[in-house]
Amino acid sequence: MVFFQGQEYERRIQKLKEDVRIIFANAVDSVATFELIDSINKLGLASHFDIEIKEALDTIASTKMKISSSEEDLYTTALCFRLFRQHGYEVSQDMFRGFMDEKTGLFRDNTHINIKEMLELLEASYLGLEGENILDVARDFLTATLKERISSLDSDLAKQVVHVLELPSQRRVQWFDVKWHINSYEKDIHMNSSILELAKPHFNIVQAKLQKDLRESSR
């Protein structure tokens, strides 16, 4: 990575922010937008793009709140549900009803749900409200299934599964999880270099400030 100082550094940061805003504008569909917002949140950059995030979610919400699970895959539905709930939108657990067997009350085609879908649905399930039994069923099923499958996964994917099983993101202090997500994002074949380049120095700057504040408060 190239390091910048002073005004050159500030210009580079502003350029990276503009690059990310262009990514928002050029997102080809709601899934791409959801994944972009999710990455920005996890990498600790949300404060730089709060306007873009709100506008994007408002736009999608105006057309997608009546989302049908028959029209979306499980991964997309779970990601949509999680991000809307995290950002304060009203969204129903009924989004998942189309994936369930009415007779058994369990998710259909359990053996065909891939790990990516499992992790996203498990994270979404922790945003359930009291009495939302569909999410309770999902959480119990996925926790057991992921524990069974973890030994057969490759190293990087197994680390992601362990991370979620140990403590879902909804129960973590978000900032203290940023470094883990930066390391994970760097290994993602779909990662965007502008987002990664922006996330690394931002983390170092904020972390240094937090450590300085901690030292001063302990005097």
TrEMBL record:
Superkingdom classification of source: Eukaryota
Cofactor(s) this protein cannot do without: Mg(2+)
Annotated GO MF terms: terpene synthase activity
Any Gene Ontology biological process: terpenoid biosynthetic process
Pfam families in the cross-refs: Terpene_synth
Terpene synthase N-terminal domain ranges (all copies): 7-165
Record-linked InterPro entries: Isoprenoid_synthase_dom_sf, Terpene_synth_N, Terpene_synth_N_sf, Terpene_synthase-like, Terpenoid_cyclase/PrenylTrfase
Name this protein carries in UniProt: Terpene synthase N-terminal domain-containing protein
The species this protein was found in: Quercus lobata
Lineage, broadest ranks: Eukaryota, Viridiplantae, Streptophyta, Embryophyta, Tracheophyta
